[in-house]
Design brief:
Elements: H1 2-115, H2 117-125, H3 135-156, H4 159-168, H5 173-293, H6 327-424, H7 426-451
Helix pairs in contact: 1-5, 3-4, 3-7, 4-5, 5-6, 5-7
């Protein structure tokens, strides 16, 4: 019994130790699962944050679209207004050009009529026209005309007019008027060409401005697309790394669970073997006790008398042997121990079945989780590859837009270099040429009067 007690105490210590190890394993498993739950909650929070950022970006993009649409509408209104103004200016310029041309044509035709040989002969015979003019009077008229042209030359800084003023004092009227006509024609041609140049500069600068604005918008869109692709790739790579880490941790948990299951099963086999051995020993002890207490023998024969001894008193005889009254208690205790051992065996078997079922379910769940994570990783890797391709194309688009912007900016510089002087001084230059033409017309009129 002492040996059994020591065995039971050793089993109790071992069971307590196993219980502590099982509790520690459970605590580790609980902590691991708690970390997985926390990681899942963190993932949910990250996804919620990303959703909020995406919603904000969508709202900002809608606002940008509204602002761009409003700006586009304002640009369209401005373009329509510019077209109307330009059309009005073109119409006014055409009318002024038409009047100038008609005036120039009328003066030229009048000059041809007055200088025609028939008209000159007719006027020489007419009594209403002075038939001769003194050389002094003609010289005075030439001086007057030369003075007008010389003033115009000084006013406008024209070397052609200065040369014309010098020749007017000596050349004949026909050559002088011919030179004036040529200069008037040249001035009008320059005015027309400058108008055309100004219109071309205005149109080209407007086209360049619109194209540059559109390219800057394309650049902004490309930069936004690149930023979105880069953020998407980084997020997918982080999620892939997290999934891989989760797979690795799950595999570690599977390995640990397998080792724990093997250890628990070994302990179960040991426990069952110990309990069955205990039951066999106790059964043998019970059989011995039952065999002994079932006999009806006694230590002495009750029917014999001891022989009389001569000269001595007869010795005392044995009393009939009685079974110990405590035997039933010992057998009952052994039966209780046997029953308790069987109960321990049954509990161990039930715990083993429960642990095996939990282990198998854990293995199934872990396998499904790994498959789902591997499928998610494969899907995200495909999305990363697609995003990388989109990122390369977006960078190529950005580079192309950058090249287009450089070309547009360079062309803008060339336009300003070519057109700024014309556009900034257009009214002044046009007015100067108009005044110059008017001065030439006045000189021509003076010469026409002199020839008459």
């Amino acid at each position: 019994m002492k040996q059994m007690k020591e065995s039971f105490e050793a089993n109790l210590v071992k069971a307590q130790k196993d219980e502590k190890e099982a509790q520690a394993t459970f605590a580790d498993m609980k902590a691991a699962k708690t970390e997985e739950i926390d990681a899942g909650n963190t993932g949910v929070d990250n996804k919620s944050t990303e959703l909020a950022d995406a919603d904000q970006l969508n709202a900002e993009s809608k606002e940008d679209l509204e602002d761009t649409t409003a700006q586009l509408e304002a640009d369209r209104v401005f373009l329509a207004d510019v077209k109307v103004r330009c059309a009005a200016m073109d119409k006014l310029f055409a009318e002024r050009s038409k009047v100038r041309n008609e005036e120039s044509t009328a003066v030229s035709e009048a000059l041809e009529i007055l200088t025609d040989d028939d008209a000159r002969d007719l006027m020489s015979r007419s009594t209403f026209v002075q038939t001769s003019m003194s050389s002094q009077h003609q010289s005075a008229i030439r001086e007057r005309a030369a003075t007008l042209v010389n003033k115009a030359a000084k006013r406008f800084g024209s070397p052609q007019l200065s040369a014309l003023a010098l020749t007017m004092t000596s050349d004949v009227f026909g050559k002088i008027k011919e030179s004036i006509d040529l200069m008037i024609t040249q001035l009008k041609k320059e005015m027309k060409e400058e108008v055309e140049k100004k219109d071309w500069c205005r149109d080209e600068l407007h086209k360049n401005e619109m194209a540059t604005t559109a390219k800057y918008e394309d650049k902004e869109d490309a930069e936004t697309t690149i930023a979105n692709h880069e953020a998407n790739v980084a997020r997918l790579k982080d999620e892939i790394a997290a999934a891989q880490a989760e797979i690795k941790q799950t595999q570690i948990d599977i390995k640990q669970a397998s080792e724990n299951r093997q250890k628990e099963n070994s302990e179960f086999q040991t426990t069952v073997a110990d309990q069955r051995a205990t039951q066999q020993i106790l059964a043998k002890a019970m059989d011995k006790l039952k065999g002994f207490y079932s006999k009806k023998a006694s230590l002495l024969q009750t029917g014999r008398q001891a022989p009389d001894l001569v000269g001595a008193a007869a010795p005392a005889t044995f009393q009939p042997y009685k079974k110990k009254g405590g035997a039933g208690g010992v057998m009952g205790m052994i039966e209780n121990i046997v029953n308790e051992s069987k109960h321990v065996e049954d509990e161990s078997r039930a715990a083993e079945q429960e642990a095996q079922a939990g282990y198998e379910q854990f293995m199934v769940d872990s396998g499904n989780a790994i498959k789902a994570l591997q499928a998610d990783i494969t899907d995200k890797q495909a999305r990363v590859a697609a995003a990388d391709g989109d990122l390369v194309r977006a960078k190529e688009d950005l580079a192309a837009v950058g090249g287009d912007l450089e070309d547009l900016n360079q062309y803008n510089k060339e336009l300003h270099s070519e057109c700024d002087y014309i556009t900034h001084n257009f009214e002044t230059r046009q007015q100067a040429r108009t005044d110059e033409v008017e001065a030439l017309d006045q000189a021509k009129a003076v010469l026409s009067g002199a020839s008459v």
